[in-house]
């Protein structure tokens, strides 16, 4: 989602018992779809559509990783939420917005071009930090989606040694919304194989340990294909 889109109203509240039930359903789904012998995928609660009051209800449920994608929406929330929350940036990031979020995010999930890498590295250096990041891959080749083709990932990763204040720790992907389960299973499998290939190359300045993929409609499929993080929003706040 681009920063120039209109801001939508935020969900102001939710029954805590309903939220707890929804969270437990997602966590159970992750537990039941564990990949090999790795731990269940970590839940990143996407909070871009909900108000601070709803975010704070996640804390007693043990969910402290939250995902946002628009500076103008995310930044006003920060003074109103518990300081224990860890903010993940999950949307396409414009270079002119890096300065606004650089000291607030724990990880950038959408590193997709060298121009952005240069700006993140520069701003992170100004703040005396090294920002963890994931490289976004457009595994399905969708024209409307961000991310780079799989064939460009290795070359991009080999450039990361030039950016000491940016630490690539894995890959991220967003799947087609309307794809059937068999197609999603194939695409998630391709992402896992790409992740393992890049990990086995031991590229300087890169540490392949996180694979961020899966959302509300497909997180179970992502988990069983080796996601280490899933980004779930709608499934946490639904009332059905």
Q: What is the number of E strands?
A: 8
- Class inferred from helices and paired strands: alpha/beta
Low-confidence stretches: none
Shape by Cα distribution: globular
For the biggest β-sheet, the strand order reads 7-6-5-4-3-2-1-8
Main sheet?
8 strands, parallel
Helix tally? 9
Mean model confidence by pLDDT: 95
- Helicity range of the residues? 25-40%
Beta-strand fraction estimate:
15-25%
Distance between the termini: 26 Å
Radius of gyration: 17 Å
Structural overview:
There is one protein chain. The chain is α/β, with parallel strands linked by helices. Helices cover 35% and strands 19% of the residues. The protein has helices at 16-32, 52-56, 71-77, 98-101, 114-126, 153-158, 181-201, 219-224, 234-237, and strands at 42-46, 65-68, 86-89, 105-111, 131-136, 166-173, 206-213, 229-232. An eight-stranded parallel beta sheet has the order 7-6-5-4-3-2-1-8. It is globular. The protein starts with 15 loop residues before the first helix and ends with a helix. The mean pLDDT is 95.
Compose a concise summary of this entry.
The chain has 240 residues and is of the alpha/beta class.
Task: Provide tags for this entry.
8-stranded parallel beta sheet; 8 strands; alpha/beta; 240 residues
Strand-helix topology:
Layout: H1 16-32, E1 42-46, H2 52-56, E2 65-68, H3 71-77, E3 86-89, H4 98-101, E4 105-111, H5 114-126, E5 131-136, H6 153-158, E6 166-173, H7 181-201, E7 206-213, H8 219-224, E8 229-232, H9 234-237
Parallel strand pairs: 1-2, 1-8, 2-3, 3-4, 4-5, 5-6, 6-7
